[in-house]
Amino acid sequence: MAVLTENTYKPLTVESAINLAINLQLFTNKENLVCKEIGDGNLNLVFHIVDNEKQKGIIIKQALPYAKVVGESWPLTIHRSEIEANALKTHGEFVSHLVPKVYHTDKTLAITVMEDLSHLTIARTGLIDGQNYPLLSSHVGEYLAKTLFYTSDYALHPFKKKDLVKQFSNPELCKITEDLVFTDPFFDVDTNDFEEELKDTVREIWKDASLKFEVAKLKKQFLTETEALLHGDLHTGSIFASITETKVIDPEFAFYGPFGFDVGQFFANLIFQVIVRTGEQRQVILNHLEKTWDIFQTIFTDSWQKDCLEPFAEIESYLPYILGKIFTDSIGFAGCELIRRTIGLSHVKDLDGITDIKVRIAAKKTALKLGRACILYRHKINGMEDYISFIKQNINE
Ligand SMILES: Nc1ncnc2c1ncn2[C@@H]1O[C@H](COP(=O)(O)OP(=O)(O)O)[C@@H](O)[C@H]1O
Ligand SMILES: CSC[C@H]1O[C@H](OP(=O)(O)O)[C@H](O)[C@@H]1O
């Protein structure tokens, strides 16, 4: 039908999405199909098609030629759809159980047809509702260790790695991160978004030259360290979870960047829950932080011992140096994420969803204070136990 024979891009509708699914022979009978557009993210359309009789569903994700959250005044390459599908496939080679299956892609239409994960809950939503997902941190620790190690120079022939660096060149999406995570929140620019009550605290950030110097160093790392194929946007809204399963979605920001960036983004998005929870419920999330790093280190080390191609791997201090650098960098990147999701463009519901303004402002001030401390003092934090004490101290003071 039309949608497959036209050789030009067109945004799908619920009708054309159904036609596409039939043409692709993913379903046989159109009559039983129900299609809804369920996209709740900042950028894309997401169609959920279900065959009510067979209880079977699929997802068709389509990139719009602009950022949905802002509109057509913010044009954005639809090539991000191909990047996302290829990242799902590449990461899927190492962690097939932790990412959705890709059934079909189309560059012209900028679509990825993939496994329906609607039996799971977006981790951010579940965590805000008080769910704990006991396997979340083990699964994400494994995802991080395997996707990062096996796409790096430590596991790939240099020609293959450099081919991947080219294939995953993603300048427009990286520019969003460069601006929204590493630049805008630290300057008085229009894209920033915060309550009047935070104005004084934010002005302090803008005036803080030592903080800005450290952010400049972290931004430089993001710009220049082509270490591994990152997810690029690993917040808890990009993770589906249940008590038994975890699936990482939405790697449209994928590119070759520093090991610590994905780890840091995940840390920060757990830390928002540390900030908003209290008592035992807070401890559950602190345990997730600890477990993520523990599993990450263990699997990264096993992979290094089994599969490292680097002759210098035999030097005893080399792996501890790499792991130490990832840890320190990830704390710095987490600090940037804590600040940008609080005062920059595109917030998190963990904080914005707090209805009591006093409680919300207090939580946001804590996020800013902790973010600043992570960036400034990351080199002084010696291991996860120390990091957890550091977080507790900065939250309680
Ligand atoms: N494979 C999937 N299965 C079920 N629902 C999905 C799937 N992928 C995305 N969604 C739904 O669509 C929403 C937006 O998807 P996402 O990939 O995060 O889009 P965006 O890139 O616009 O942020 C998710 O929050 C989720 O509710
Ligand atoms: C242009 S909005 C910026 C923000 O949008 C992305 O979020 P998502 O695709 O998960 O909705 C990403 O976090 C960007 O920083």
Question: Could you walk me through the main structural features you see in this protein, from its secondary elements to its overall organization?
Answer:
By secondary structure, the chain is of the alpha+beta class. 52% of the residues lie in helices and 13% in strands. It has 2 domains: 2-115, Phosphorylase Kinase, domain 1 (2-Layer Sandwich); 121-396, Aminoglycoside 3'-phosphotransferase, Chain: A, domain 2, CATH 3.90.1200. It contains 15 helices and 12 strands. The strands form 4 sheets. A 5-stranded antiparallel sheet has the order 1-2-3-7-6, with helices on both faces. The chain has a 3-stranded antiparallel sheet with strand order 8-10-11. The chain has a two-stranded antiparallel sheet with strand order 4-5. Helix 3 crosses helix 5, helix 5 runs parallel beside helix 11 and helix 10 (260-276) packs across helix 12. The protein starts with a helix and ends with a helix. The mean pLDDT is 97. The structure holds adenosine-5'-diphosphate and ligand LNRAV4D5. Keywords: Amino-acid biosynthesis, ATP-binding, Kinase, Methionine biosynthesis, Nucleotide-binding, Transferase. It is an enzyme of class 2 (transferase).
